[in-house]
Here is the input.
Amino acid sequence: MTTPTQPAEQLSTTTLLRFATAGSVDDGKSTLVGRLLHDSKSVLTDQLEAVEDASRKRGQEAPDLALLTDGLRAEREQGITIDVAYRYFATPRRRFILADTPGHVQYTRNMVTGASTAELAVVLVDARNGVVEQTRRHAAVAALLRVPHVVLAVNKMDLVDYAEPVFAAIAKEFTAYAASLGVPEITAIPISALAGDNVVEPSSHMDWYGGPTVLEHLETVPVSHDLTACHARFPVQYVIRPQTPEHRDYRGYAGQIAAGVFRIGEPVTVLPSGRTSTIAGIDLLGNSVDTAWAPQSVTIRLTDDVDVSRGDLIAPSDDAPAVTQDVEATVCHVADRPLTVGQRVLIKHTTRTVKAIVKDIPSRLTLDDLSQHPAPGQLVANDIGRVVVRTAEPLALDAYADSRGTGSFLLIDPADGTTLSAGMAGASFAAVVRAAAPADDEAEWDF
Here is the structure.
């Protein structure tokens, strides 16, 4: 049997960090990732030999470490990253899941995918170019997705003679911008991914820098995995009714706990119906347990024969989310086709998908100065804006600021299933921006 004290104890020993890399085209993201893998001894011999062989065929004397992550043929031919490349590696201090995301503006949607589950984002900047529009877009996406830690890696310092004033000016500009978006922690590190300066080993060319290397920071940054502290939420994925002689009356609701802790005997409410019951049993990997917590996959049994189906949400009766058919949210539009007022869509929230219509698009964010463009009428690819969506059926939504899992959703084209926008319910991003805006400009923000 499990006990209520076990979740925190188990999670406290977790040493996994999920992080994503982002930056503009040719800022050196894939090279940085390759350098991390290579210098941390996380590359297999045959992988390195393949990279060396491919580099020689392209006329390069030294191995192009970017090829360790740029696996698609088009990526290698064009020298750019197109798709998100996930890599798993480990050091004695921590395990890592890395998402190397594209830098080109047309692939910003992939950056949203890679950063959606990240606890840290590494944003690269070319020391020669400084902060550009795509840098600001990636900072905004990181803030919107509430990534708690952001590393500014000022790359290619070797091409500016390792000049401290260049690094200081870029770090000051980016930090001010990211802080205005509400990014809680920003760490700036000067690096040369190609030469290896300050990636895994400290640089002998920048003795003016006394901070951590990239890997040292990744190994030591505090990361909270304690989903048990969040509001308890259980989206039902499947109803189990064997109706066999051994389990004639068995009725269980299977799924993955999105957040929080559930215990036998706890009063719960099924949403959106609002019916109440009590947890009679929890089955985990074929065994009955007293307590279960996120992100375990379990089957919950209730004391009452309640009508529960896929897409319903089970939550503690004293801490259930509000049910609504009017969704106000910030979205990143990721489709090539625009999102327009009056458009009919599907909204996918946890395991529930319902019909909806876009009632309004109040504003679109301008990344250069964080001003807002009122009533744009539509959002095009890579736009960030506010939307109001009316659903055909009620949804039990949390604010994204409270729960990344149950506060997020997708807008989908009902005709072909294309994902249109990634949404964050509530005022998670907009409220931060408004709070950070100067007092005399506050009236201009109507998010």
